Amino acid sequence: MPNTLSLSYLHTAMREWRRHLHQYPETAFEETQTAQFVADKLREFGLQVHQGLGRTGVVGTLSAGTSGKKIALRADMDALFIQEHNDFAHKSRHDGKMHACGHDGHTAMLLGAACHLARQPNFDGTVYFIFQPAEEGRAGAKEMIQDGLFELFPADCVFGMHNFPDIPAGQFAVKAGAMMAAFDCFEITIQGQATHAAMPHLGNDAIVAAAQLIMALQTIVSRSLNPADPAVVSITQIHAGNTWNAIPDTVLLRGTVRCFKPALQSQIAEQIRHLSATVCAAFNVSAKVLFNPENPGYPVTWNSEAETAQALQAAIAVAGVTGVDTQPIPSMGSEDFAFMLQEKPGCYLWIGNGPSANSCLLHNPHYDFNDELLPIGAAYWVQLVETVCHLNAA
Ligand SMILES: [Zn+2]
Ligand SMILES: [Zn+2]
Q: What is 182-291's CATH number?
């Protein structure tokens, strides 16, 4: 069983905070009530609080002792544009929005750790508690960094945690190197020439060209890349036409790319451009390709060796050796904590949310964060601070 006794006295409070946040979900860069809730709690615990970094981000600072060691811990605060299908008392009261990724739980766990460390500062150094906006596809971490996050709060290292379904509840999974993939989005506009559906020879059919191009794009992973390098190219949208008997002049395709190496990101982008141009040319239509047209892509979430060893030590102290998977298979999902890991050495780990049965997968309308994790995750944060900023540190 996890060693969470030291934080169990905060379980009821953290559950209350978590369920409050679940009831009032706010999406990217609109987390104003959430940010205020977090800031009020941090002030109540006695921390120094900075608001409005990266628009709605909050940073709390807590120092103890005399060492110059500085550690940053990060939680995400944003919800998703998903209509909740749960029917419990704490279900979302914001129509069309819900905490379906557990960021309500991440926020509550980091608040719990701040509360405990303020009361019992058994560490020597400074802890920055980062509550970031807009993790879901809008790169809130990048915005906080551009807004001066690490100049204002010059951490030596930075750590993140995300719940993960199908890892046993309260267990951890972490390893050095890639934990989550880089992602890019792309948009291909195929321009043909419209015509009557019964007279295809009088136009240039963008739909037939699009069908060929979609199949050709499947060969990037299977034929162009080294099979030892995992990657995904998925077409996720096709938009064209609006009636039965006319061939439209344009087709819009959108999709996403995932992989674990920056060099592969550019290699795949180059191949998407090449196939779009050549396949479309073969059908007398043209293609315009845009990458990340609306929001920045995310880099690989890459854990550094030394900080991963510290995270591992803290996770084992909480969950025991058998409660930590040290060789998890990296996820092809992506995470904007990767931007923080580009700036500072650090480590991102998963805490098990339990089985995904009953539709409890991330981004599912039936998802709910497992409240039993709250004292376990908070205990990990406390243990990590006490490990990295241990008393008598140089
Ligand atoms: Zn998510
Ligand atoms: Zn998430």
A: 3.30.70.360
